[in-house]
Each structure stands twice: as structure tokens, then as C-alpha cells.
């Protein structure tokens, strides 16, 4: 039986995996993939709540907006990472440390 | 209100949108060498937008565009802050050597687009619009921070910004999804009613959701522990962009934070009622108080060790975010009044300090504080005004910073005895900040040779510095004009509909 809780658990798992990815990965693109997992966890939540919670359509609309904005954000982030690669020859975020703490 | 009727309330933003479109097309026409002329178009557009904003006098809260944003005096005063900050920063950018030799057409266009995003942040009352507006501002900030593509410093700033930014907006989004699941609506005003009818069983979820949402807002206004991006981004980004990021998006973040927390966890009554009730069950008032205390302490203590003027101002801007945040948990009209007043004052002194940093960097080619030695004698103009801004940022009378801090502390003291400890920490922090602000003045006047070249910066740079310095002093002596204006802007804040 697939009910609301199943989707919420999947959402929570995706969220945790996304945070894990952002914290542990050193490759810039992999970190971005972690961020995408977090965004999609929220999307799963939104759609599941809207579908099973007897709520209005705003959950579906919200997730559409999130998808669009995630694409825009990924475009900018990848352009920045590409630029880093052109200038430094690496996309390891640990090696981008010219600015002192 | 429907979409068509809403347009007449949306004129200032429409002017900004028109500016962006015209600037984009103009940038296609101009050659690389003339691309900077887009800046003049943007300035003209901002002036027109300010004028239409001046003519629009919202008597009360008017929800427009199917109740996703509101037009009210509160958002109006913030829109003025955004327009003014952008206007000044565009002028600063035109006189900055860092941006010479780069094609700057898109740069000015993006700044104009950011005004639109910030205006939406200050006026959104729907969770979708909250997220959308934050993302508009964030994505443009990433591009601006990395605008100098050939510079590794600028690249690195953009990389750190985009990773922290995307991460915290993801956290916020998850918090928003939990909130939506609890209440079944994305409208802020309906959320407020639904939350108060939730049973105590939802308190844990609500607390988690509040903390996650705070991560998103906290990143925007750079409060500890969501501040890690700030020093690196501020140091690496072009200086005019740093000045911009430390003022305008921060003000927008606070506008959103105030409206969000007040509507969601207040009583939903208009701001005119003396005290709003905190929502029972979620200790968000305590959370905000602790965050404010930690933010200013960390900002000030780390600022002491900084050697680069941009990093110093970055940490000082974190500390100022802490001061401003003190006004949020007080939950009184006085608290919000103090916040808005302080943000306006902060705009002048912070942009002034940055405009001086740009002039010094153009002339003497340094951002290191120790290398400022003797500038007070070499160029009395720079030395004097840097001292004015540093006094004002510290909050020493008779500068505007003092009046701003005074209102904040007064709001805390009048808020009740549970806020006394926060006020004491705030005062102690002002004393700590005196040390590093005065160090800049000390280096300029008491170190190095005293040769004179009597340098006075060129027309526009000098005018910007002067235009920032006059309000920094004037509002410290006669602030009733500003106080009246801020006061009138708080009326009909969140009247429900």
C-alpha cells in the first residue's frame, strides 16, 4: 500500500542523502548533485502532500516552480564551475582556497 | 485582486522591468567599448521607478496578483532602500578601476533585475513567491560575485557563494514543504490561522520547519551560523558588488524575515497593536534571540583579526546583521521601527565606507589596512570621511549610527526584562567594534609618513562619498524627518484579508 508516509520517507531519505552528498563530496559537480537531491526531496513532499492531503493544487504548482528555478540555478552554477576549471584546471572545491579564512 | 486590476499597483516594478528590457536590447547594440553606457540607461530607469514609487501612496495593505504579493507602506519604504542602494552602487561601479576593461552592459542590467527580485522579497505573502523572489536575488548575486571572469579570486567567491546559496535555499525549501504539509496552504495569511489551530502534536515538525526556513533567510542576511560564505565572497567579489551585497539583499532579507515571522507567528493583528503574541509551542523567539547574540559576537570578534578592509567590512556587516536581528524577537512595533531605521542608516554608512575603499584602491592600489598608513595626511578628504563612516558604524554620537543603535536598544529595554541580557550583549559588542573601527582611523593618521599630496578624488567619486557622509552625520543630529517617515511606513502592516 503506497500512502503519504511512503512518499514522506522517500523525501526524507533523499533529503538526508543530499545533505550527505553536499558535506562529503569535494567535486564541485557532485556537490551540485547533492543540492539537486535536496530540492527534489522537497518536490516529493510537495506533490505527496498535495495529492494525499486533500489540499489544493498549490503543492503541484510549487514543485513546478522549483524545477524551473533548479534548472536556472544549475545553469549558473555549472557556468561558474566551468570558469573555475578554465582558470585553475580543477573543480575540486578544496583547492579553491586563495581567499584566506 | 485579479491580474489585470493589479497592474496599476505594480507600476514601480513595471518600470524596473522595462529598464531591464531596454538595457538588454541596448547592450546588444553597443560595442564593447561603449557597453558601460548601459549604466546610464539603468540609472535613468531607476530614477523613473523611484518617481512612480513616490507617486504611489498605498493607504493600506492591498494584496495583488491573486494574493501573492502585497502593496503596503512597509514594502514601499524598503523599495526606496533598494532603489537608492542600486543607484549608488551603479554610480560607484562606473568609477571603479576593477571593472574597467570588462564588458559591463550585463552587469548593470543584472543589477536592475535584482531590484525587481528584492522588491518582490519585501512584498511577497505567498510561499511560492517567497521562494521565487529569494532565488531571483540569489542567482543574480552569484553572477555578480563572479563577474570578473579572468580573476581567480572572483571565480572562487562565486563558487563558494553558489554552493552555500543553493544548499541553504534547498534547506529552506524542505522547511517550506513541511509547513505546506502541516497547513495545506501557501498563503501567508491563511498559514497564520492554520498554525494556531494545530495541536501540540505538530510542534516538533513546526520547530524543525522553522529552523530549516531560518537557514534560508539567515543565509540571505548572513547571520551566524549561516555566515560562512560572507567573508570569502565579500573579499573575492568586485568591490562595488561587495558593497551592494552587504546592503541591498540584506535589507530585503530582513523585510522578508520580519513579514514572515510576524504574519506566521504573530497574532495576525496590524502592527499598530502594541505587542504581538508569540506563537505558543515553538521557541522561535528564543532561537532568534540566541542567534542575534551569537551573530554580533562572532562578527565583532573575528573582525578584530582582519587585515583586509573588505574582509573587515564583511565581518562588520555580519555584526550589524546581529544588531538588526535583535529587533525581530521583541515583537513590537518599536522593534520593527528600530530595524527599518537602522537599515536606512546602515545603507549610508556601509556604502560610504565601501566607496572610500574603492577610491583608496583606485588611487593607492591596496586593500590592506596596514597599507592605509598616512592616508589621513596624504589626503585629508579621504581620511576625514573614513573617520566619519567608522565613527558612524561604531555608533558614536553625533553620527547616525548612534541614533540607530539607540532605537534598537530602546526597543529591547521597553520590550521587557527578558530582553535585558540581549541589550547588554549588544552594548558590549559595540565596545568591541570600537577597537577595530578605530584601528583603521589610527593607521590612517598615526602610522607612516606625513607627506602631503592633498589628493582629492575626481568629481563623481568625491560626490558619492560626500552624499553618503552627509546623511551619516545629519541623521545623527536631526533625525525627526527620517523617524517620521519610518513611522508612517509601519501603518497597516499586515491587516488580514
Give an account of the 3D structure.
The complex is a heterodimer of chains A (101) and B (497). Chain A has 101 residues and is mainly alpha-helical. Chain A has a single domain (4-88), classed as Helix Hairpins, CATH 1.10.287.3510. Helices cover 76% and strands 0% of the residues of chain A. Chain A has helices spanning 4-24, 28-52, 58-88. In chain A, α1 (4-24) packs antiparallel against α2 (28-52). Chain A is elongated and about 50 Å long. Chain A starts with a helix and ends in a 13-residue tail after the last helix. Chain B is mostly helical and 497 residues long. Chain B has a domain at 283-490. Helices cover 72% and strands 1% of the residues of chain B. A two-stranded antiparallel sheet of chain B has the order 1-2. In chain B, a hairpin with a 4-residue loop joins β1 (62-64) and β2 (69-71). The A-B interface holds A 8, 11, 15, 18, 22, 28, 31-32, 34-35, 38-39, 41-43, 45-46, 49, 53-56, 58-59, 61-62, 65-66, 69, 72-73, 76-77, 80-81, 83-84, 87-88, 93, 96-99, 101 and B 127-128, 131-132, 135, 138-139, 142-143, 146, 149-150, 152-153, 155-160, 162-163, 166-167, 169-171, 173-174, 176-178, 180-181, 184-186, 231-232, 235-236.
Considering the chains and any ligands shown, give keywords for the structure.
heterodimer, A: 101 residues, mainly alpha, Helix Hairpins, 76% helix, B: 497 residues, two-stranded antiparallel ribbon
